[in-house]
Amino acid sequence: MPNSQTLKALLKETMAQCDHLARRDHDPVGRVWEYERDEDREVAALVASSLAYGQVKVLREAIVRALSPLGPHPAHTLRVAPLEDLATRWPAFTYRMTRGEDLADLAVALGTTLRREGSLSELYRRGLPETDGLSARERHLHAASNFVQTLRQRRARQELSRGFRYLLPDPADGSTCKRLHLFFRWMSRGPDGIDLGLWPSLSPDALVMPLDTHTGRLCRYLGLLTRKTLDARAAIEVSERLASLDAQDPLKYDFALCHLGIGRRCIHRRSDEHCPGCPIEAACTL
Fold first, then answer.
1. Residue 64: which domain range?
2. What angle do CA 185, 280, 229 make, to 5 degrees?
3. 191: cis peptide before it, omega within 30°?
4. What are the pLDDT digits (tens) for 32-81?
5. Based on the domain organization, do 12 and 142 belong to the same domain?
6. What pLDDT digit, counting tens, does each position of 127-143 carry?
7. Do 98 and 64 have their domain in common?
8. DSSP bridge partners of 98
């Protein structure tokens, strides 16, 4: 495993080689930036991040289909449309594990929240514990779980379905919750053209790495992850390792690392075509 200074330099080079704004058109967050109002971006971000699984081109198309029934200003639509009407707007939607009924659950939950708390940010803020002695990340995880549990309780259907649980995972359940942590990264960091920086109550130093199979492999190649099981503890391990490189903004490296895979610069096997010139090759143990 490279020492911290070497690894930090390599990750800095990875960021430098990543054309962030160009790559935004190949990332789910690009769909969020298409909205001009912050309140619409906040709503679009939760929808987009919740669907951020599978092949990027296909999921970006799914995000458009998911948001289109809410019109050009989804926050306004969610705030004023009858909840029973919101529950009927995705009759034929399907995207892998997600069905129209799951989006209806989410829409009703979002509409209820915008009417009661005014914003998703306020719902999150109210879940932050006052207890002394907790770290910033522990407070964030507590608020994140409360955020999810409250939205789940405000769903359209009586029963909590497997599809809606998958769409909106709870950090307390022990999984990586990659898509939820991606949403929080978008809300906390920035604005920098990628992350939107909409939530002042969520500091970047509290964030958890949005870890999935692909980023998990990259983190193992770099010695950022030793845990074999890809779960919540693995995501925390990577977050803490990155915090040792930048305590104030550990997830600043996430987008560039993720796009090594999305952009097919890393194919997770040694290749004379792909490996030479890769910014992390000097530290890669693949």
1. 27-201
2. 60
3. yes
4. 999 999 999 999 999 999 999 999 999 999 999 999 999 999 999 999 99
5. no
6. 999 877 899 999 999 99
7. yes
8. 95
